[in-house]
Amino acid sequence: MTSEHMELKGDAEEPPPARQSGRCKEPLNMNNYANKKSAAESMLDVALLMANASQLKVVLEQGPEVKLYALLVTLISISLILQVIVGILLIFIVKWNLNDPSKHYKLDVLENIVTGMIFIVVVVNVCITAFGVQHSH
């Protein structure tokens, strides 16, 4: 019989744990995975936060005579606010235990909200780039 047929019928034996460097590979710890993923997202969020703060500084220094001044200040402010909210939500996601099934729904909703907000931040930052923030020399 083929291995696919045995697996479908449930006759297949469980394969031995994968070996890597002479050690058994441990199962994926979802809490560690989520914490690392959230930490990476947070680092990217901090980098974008610093870039937006720098852009806001340049626009404010150049003053209202800059073309599209109000629009740029508004877009950069929206981006900054959303990034702070995303950062706070990521802290809550990291603090909750993924291995607790009673929290799965809440975590899924929070992850979806964070993903949506990150998408909005990206769109807002594309608009900021399109309308331009020129550094004065």
TrEMBL record:
The keyword Transmembrane applies. The chain crosses the membrane at residues 68-93, 113-133. It is found in: Membrane. Pfam families: Ninjurin. It is a multi-pass membrane protein. InterPro entries: Ninjurin. GO terms for biological process: cell adhesion; tissue regeneration. Residues 1-12 have a biased composition (Basic and acidic residues). It comes from the Eukaryota. Residues 1-27 are annotated as: Disordered. Keywords: Cell adhesion, Membrane, Transmembrane, Transmembrane helix. One of its GO terms (cellular component) is membrane. Signal peptide: none annotated. Belongs to the ninjurin family. This is Ninjurin-1. It comes from Conger conger.
